[in-house]
């Protein structure tokens, strides 16, 4: 096998990955790092759907212990430590408060669950759980006096996808956004795959192996692209979130129990409180999903049952929803459906393989990608060994965003401190790419708002596949909430000219 150049001169590859969410990007990155020639196609933008509409957590999944998902929780707990080291600019430790009320889960059950949470996986950087006595002047209702504290991690989910795609490209993969797979069929020695880009151009690839990482479209791809029945059914479950003014001071989250047995998170997010999520079966198009009024009311009711400050619908600044493509295990309720993943491999040695990803969660994407490559090894016996556990993702060669922001302030003394922190926590060391040639704030070019400069936009357009204002504001920079209508229009116009 010969490593590909950044752009393939011939339309042939070893592995073609369909889907640019976290699993597709993770598999493409892992495969490219093993020396395979890789192409990834995504019908929309990278992380355009489920992978940018999560609760922004890297976590073991405390509530999954109730469903005896010990293997999944153990794997996810271990991955917290791995991802903290791989992407310290995107993955940050986050303490959680789990308040206790006697009529919900008993105290012994919470203690037992947290004991397992502390000991099931490797825990090197994150502290152990502990009991808390809550002060009467705290943000919670006055009858809540006891709680527990434990630690998980928070992540910029969309950028985690982005940096995996960036690293894949650095290692020779071709990343084709706004390019959908319209047909794939087995031929002698591999797969013949037909793609169509946003301009209507048809691209043809011959690939040795095909990976279906289409997320919510994984089952539909069998009928529409492969023209054969899907081996498994997906249960599409909608998870909705709302963003409100900050409910608490400080950088910590809350995990709130509800009388229906579910839990709801209240998380710090860019100076606001992010509240989620719901578990509702979704039967409509996974590409057009919104948080319904009923779901938003549900989230408000849960929070109001625990917090002194009572939220109203008018407090909702923004809402979003994503569709989780869960493996249908015929669980009675959506919230009980497994969050584990299943890799379905079709094809015997000597036949071109098709590997399909069903289910999965953000936290375990790297292990999923490793498992996928292990399943494909019989077809690529010369490929490299596992490598992603100890490899830093692009921009992650820093200690932490705060320390790196201080370094930026020393290097670029003309940069305002708040902008240094935003760039550090968004790009890590990658921000040097568009800063190093400049000597003043003015030389960065036009400021479109919130410190978003032309220099940064050139980088996002040229290096990170950003095409429109939504790509930039919601999946590359997290600046969407603070942008004016006029600013969004100006930004869109600038990008359209490119």
UniProtKB/TrEMBL annotation:
Pfam families: DAO (PF01266), DAO_C (PF16901). One of its GO terms (cellular component) is glycerol-3-phosphate dehydrogenase (FAD) complex. Its cofactor is FAD. It comes from the Bacteria. SUPFAM superfamilies: FAD/NAD(P)-binding domain. Residues 388-490 form the Alpha-glycerophosphate oxidase C-terminal domain. The keyword Flavoprotein applies. Coiled coil: none annotated. It is an enzyme of class 1 (oxidoreductase). The keyword Oxidoreductase applies. Belongs to the FAD-dependent glycerol-3-phosphate dehydrogenase family. PANTHER family: GLYCEROL-3-PHOSPHATE DEHYDROGENASE, GLYCEROL-3-PHOSPHATE DEHYDROGENASE, MITOCHONDRIAL. This is Glycerol-3-phosphate dehydrogenase. It comes from Halopseudomonas yangmingensis.
